Amino acid sequence: MARREPPPILTVPVYLRAVRSLHGLGVREIARGLHVSPSVVRRWLAGTLVPGWRRMKAMTALWGGDAVLLALGAALQRYCRTTGVALEDALRLVRSGRAGGRARLRRATGTRDRRQLSLPIAR
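The structure assignment produced for this chain is given below.
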């Protein structure tokens, strides 16, 4: 019995490259369709900028696809960019279901005692 691989996560650069190859569009045509500048599309293709939810919905409305799946890939892109984790490691964390990534330091729960301490001062 062959092991079944989970479906790959669709990131924005992968989606835009597929749109360019399937529909034969250039960066300018994609930018014109989404009402953004070509430099923004280039940054999306490079992965240095991640579009918002409304832009992703517009992309999938124009060229097809699942906006929710694309948003999941975009959220993983943002997580990788802010934490410095590689995309493969982030996928492994998501698929394992465990919380094991780099997390922010949590403060100790409970209240702090802010009263002044009386210190013995010799006179």
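Interim note for the steering committee: The longest helix spans residues 67-83. The helical segments are 12-23, 27-34, 38-46, 53-63, 67-83, 87-96.
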